[in-house]
Amino acid sequence: MVLPSLLLVLTLALGAVAAAAAQLSCADAARVGARALARGESHERARVLALSAAPENAEADLVVGTETAEVTVRVEFQVGPGLSLPIRAEATAPRESEV
Fold it and tell me: What is the per-residue burial (b if ≥16 Cβ within 10 Å, else e) of 13-36?
């Protein structure tokens, strides 16, 4: 009885660590995409850059405003069998002025 409980706790702990790592990856990916958009890169190029830093199967939404560029990265992270967590990160960067 103790061994299955211990394995369950270990699995959940490892899943929590992996989910935290995925959250950090999503945050980094959103920052990369927002900086690219703010520099004036195309939507396609900024999306490729963001998704290259994101976990597998992530999606990126890009919005360019008059003064800022915003990127949201989302992914459904599988913690264990039948258990998934929605992970989301946003980043905003001020647009660089064109000379």
Answer: eebeebbeebbebbbbbbbbbbbb
Return d(Cα 99, Cα 95) in angstroms, integer.
Answer: 12
Q: Quick one: average pLDDT of 51-64?
A: 95
Residue 82: its pLDDT value, please? 80
Q: At residue 85, what are phi and psi to the nearest 5 degrees?
A: -120, 135
Is a pLDDT exceeding 60 seen at residue 71?
A: yes
- Which strand (E) or helix (H) includes residue 86? strand 83-94
Model-level pTM?
Answer: 0.85
Which amino acid would we find at residue 65?
A: G
Angle between helices 43-53 and 2-39 (to 10 degrees): 150
